[in-house]
User: Which sequence fits this backbone?
């Protein structure tokens, strides 16, 4: 059987809540990181509160599958990725990823983690499709998602407002059969 | 011009009202025993709900309205006797960016195709854009719900996202379509029609 937790640059892992809380507390102070990944206002939480969020989330894990991302070369914790099922009935899930360590941006680490989580969605969770959204200005993410096989499915006009500028959000999806075809299966 | 005389919750044949925890659970429970109603309105697995369960949902709705302030829920009433005929809501409001999602449903088949949905959506949009001051609203519609598709298109909503094969119902796979309407677009149409009503 495949080692579905290992890619070519990173592996999917899990951390104790205090380890992840410490990492998030550090990454959140990088507002560019936040504004690429999220549409909520950037804000700063204590490690204590972050740990509570993570623990609360873990209790409700039957519909969410979250992993930390560690590099294979030096085992450095660089980000997080996860699938959030909208419902088992429709076999569909939302995907979210962020690489908190900016030294690891644009070097293929995120794309490698994306390949792993998509594979996990299709061959472990047996999903029929995976969806995600991104800000239209996040060109690096768009390229990465396209590389992994996501198709652009639409654009919400003016969904975000930052620095007084309205911007669109993009919405993408990948179907099981598309992913299987790309694997040569 | 500031217009506070126009009633936000009154239309020609219907009006918006609050939840009535005494009489509404019984009525809405009946709607939930109609599979078509449940499957047009929601993506969750359809299931009938007892009056007690509906009552619990109403309590959860008002708790969310009170604590999170990102849900605005109205019951749709017949103007002639104030009886409950449906619901209309703005939900998942993202205040930072000025977005919200709109949803509405008419409870029984005999109350559909009478223009109640149009009147309710008209009031709901005026509420979202003139009272909540949202920048845009979104409506998410399963591709099999042709009535809702026509209704939102009639009000100038644009198809923005088509999530391919996102739904599995009756052993068939359907797209999930997302429509968007901007405050500015709505105002332009309203002015063309001669007012915000």
Assistant:
């Amino acid at each position: 059987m495949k080692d579905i937790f290992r890619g070519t640059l990173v592996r999917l892992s899990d951390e104790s809540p205090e380890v992840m809380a410490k990492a998030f507390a550090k990454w959140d102070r990088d507002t560019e990181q936040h504004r690429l990944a999220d549409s909520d206002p950037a804000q700063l939480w204590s490690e204590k509160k972050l740990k509570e969020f993570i623990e609360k989330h873990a209790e409700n894990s039957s519909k969410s599958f979250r992993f930390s991302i560690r590099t294979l070369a030096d085992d450095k914790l660089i980000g997080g990725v996860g699938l959030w099922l909208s419902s088992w009935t429709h076999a569909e899930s939302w995907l979210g990823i962020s690489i908190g360590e900016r030294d690891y941006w644009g070097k293929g680490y995120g794309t490698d983690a994306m390949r792993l989580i998509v594979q996990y969605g299709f061959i472990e969770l047996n999903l029929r499709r995976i969806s995600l959204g991104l800000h239209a200005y996040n060109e690096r993410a768009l390229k990465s998602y396209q590389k992994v096989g996501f198709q652009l499915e639409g654009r919400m006009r003016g969904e975000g407002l930052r620095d007084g500028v309205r911007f669109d959000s993009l919405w993408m999806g990948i179907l099981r059969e598309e992913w299987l075809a790309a694997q040569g299966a | 011009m500031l217009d506070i005389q126009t009633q936000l919750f009154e239309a020609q044949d219907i009006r918006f009202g609050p939840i009535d925890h005494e009489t509404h659970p019984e009525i809405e429970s009946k709607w939930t025993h109609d599979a078509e109603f449940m499957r047009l309105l929601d993506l969750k697995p359809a299931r009938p709900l007892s009056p007690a369960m509906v009552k619990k949902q109403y309590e959860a709705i008002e708790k969310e309205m009170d604590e999170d302030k990102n849900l605005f829920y109205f019951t749709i009433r017949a103007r002639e006797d104030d009886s409950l005929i449906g619901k209309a809501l703005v939900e998942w409001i993202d205040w930072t960016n000025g977005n919200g999602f709109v949803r509405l449903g008419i409870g029984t088949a005999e109350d559909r195709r009478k223009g109640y949905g149009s009147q309710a959506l008209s009031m709901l949009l005026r509420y979202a854009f003139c009272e909540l001051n949202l920048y845009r609203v979104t409506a998410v519609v399963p591709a099999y719900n042709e009535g809702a598709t026509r209704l939102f298109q009639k009000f100038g909503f644009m198809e923005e996202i088509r999530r391919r094969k996102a739904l599995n119902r009756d052993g068939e796979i359907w797209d999930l379509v997302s429509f968007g309407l901007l405050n500015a677009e709505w105002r332009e149409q309203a002015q063309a029609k001669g007012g915000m009503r």
